[in-house]
Amino acid sequence: MLFRLLRLAGLALLVLSAWLVLPASEVAHATPSLDAAAGKTAWDSKACKNCHGNNAEGKLARALTAYEKTADDIIKQVRTPRNAMPAFNATQVTDQELKDMFDYFKSLPAATFTFTPYQPKPGEDPGKTLFNQKRCAGCHGENAEAVVRIVTSSGRKTISEAEVKTQVRTPRRNMPTFRAEFVTDAEIATIAKFVKAEVEKASGVAPSTLPKSGGDTPTIPWALVSALAGVVCLAGSFILRRRNIR
């Protein structure tokens, strides 16, 4: 009986502490002031600069210096973008970071940069053309160098087209989401063939030995398995302890 009372009291205290901490955190960040220095720090740490330039002067996309709109306009564009920009969620970049970036933009002199869309070279692989036109190159390099490095560093020699599509639509890590109206499934398939070929070229895989596409091995949700195992272990420990007390 004593163990049950202590366990209930402990759980109640944990819930209470979480309830007390959360409102305090929300109040502390309810009306934060904008900060150009913090905006510069956020800008340097995010992928935004890969398309908009190291100092927001423009690169693969428009310049953001002396930004003429509001901080709320920036947040709306990042969350539900127009034109060719991918979407970033609040985990990848917070509203406060975007507000600070806005203050940083306002502190910069106007740039004279004019964006010019990527122009394919004669005889260029259609996948490479799309890879650059869709601005994948901003983070991954003109020839998908970053993708090649990630895949080959893990010991793999190829990547499936299905993996590329999954990453584009439901990305892991810090990659933004590319909407179907910006990059169609057919375009992803073309891009995936290019990326796959670049990985295999770097790995020295001959075309005659390439594995057939289709039938990808499903990915095991190890995080879920680990969580369930943890719950089972906790339940077992409580049962054993109760038996010992009795």
Provide the CATH architecture of the domain at 126-207: Orthogonal Bundle
What's the helix-strand series?
A: HHHHHHHHHHH
- The radius of gyration over CA amounts to 24 Å
- CATH C-level of the domain at 126-207: Mainly Alpha
Mean pLDDT score, rounded?
Answer: 77
> What structural class do helix, strand and pairing data support?
mainly alpha
Main sheet properties:
none
As a percent range, the share of helical residues equals 55-70%
User: What is the 3D shape?
Assistant: globular
Low-confidence stretches: 10-16, 18-33, 208-219
Summed up:
The protein has 246 residues and is mainly alpha-helical.
What layout of secondary structure does this protein have?
Blueprint: H1 2-28, H2 36-45, H3 48-52, H4 71-79, H5 95-106, H6 126-133, H7 137-140, H8 145-153, H9 161-169, H10 185-203, H11 222-245
Describe the structure.
The protein has helices at residues 2-28, 36-45, 48-52, 71-79, 95-106, 126-133, 137-140, 145-153, 161-169, 185-203, 222-245. With 246 residues, it is mostly helical. Among the domains are: 36-106, Cytochrome c-like domain (Cytochrome Bc1 Complex, Chain D, domain 2, Orthogonal Bundle); 126-207, Cytochrome c-like domain (Cytochrome Bc1 Complex, Chain D, domain 2, Orthogonal Bundle), CATH 1.10.760. It is globular and about 55 Å long. The relative contact order is 0.10.
